[in-house]
């Protein structure tokens, strides 16, 4: 019990960990709230609890939006360090990653302007800026899926070569990397389904997801993110 509490405290002490926990609670609340609010009108108490959870989820979403006001510089530093991806072995992975960084970098100012317009800090219509940010987010997710698929293909080729040459340790490492890429694809697909839902009506299934389904997709993605973060931390501990 104590170890679990200490692990949770360690996660919450970092910005990245805290954001992932808030995201998980946000979508989890939307999932449960969406399910409860759909109950029969006779179950008034469940409906009221569901509405409160949906309001709580909306507040946590706003919290994450405000916190992202300070993410531009860190994203810029990452984009600058990656550059044009000269260290990548595969040209497709390289340029997909560059395009992903461009989409991510442009996402933040668009979202900031939309938030500022909603908060009446600037005179602008927020709708188009929310649309721009959603399109950029969806584009980044789609590019991320393509990148992971390409990396999976390359890892499979490496695995086949290693199986012929007989390298035991590298095979386990390659399988671990492949599992990580599969999880990334599942996470991005779940988020992409929500991104399409938030597009203007008439685009695929835009606007058709009920609250519980949005919460389910977001919860799946968030839990995968927590698993990946935990696996990354354990790998760093083992290497140390």
Biggest beta sheet summary: none
Distance between the termini: 25 Å
Percent of residues in beta strands: under 5%
Q: What's the shape?
A: globular
What is the average per-residue confidence, as pLDDT, rounded to a whole number?
A: 91
Number of strands: 0
Figure out the total of helices. Answer: 8
When the domains are counted, the total is 2
Uncertain stretches of 5 or more adjacent residues? none
Question: Which percent range fits the helix content?
Answer: over 70%
What assembly state would you assign to the polypeptide chains in this entry? single chain
Q: Could you characterize what this model shows?
A:
- With 240 residues, the chain is mainly α.
- 82% of the residues lie in helices and 0% in strands.
- It has eight helices and no strands.
- The longest helix is centred in the middle third of the chain and has 40 residues, at 126-165.
- The radius of gyration is 20 Å and the shape is globular.
- The chain starts with a helix and ends with a helix.
- InterPro entries: PEX11 (IPR008733), PEX11C_met (IPR026510).
- It comes from Sparus aurata (Gilthead sea bream).
- This is Peroxisomal biogenesis factor 11 gamma.
- Its main location: membrane.
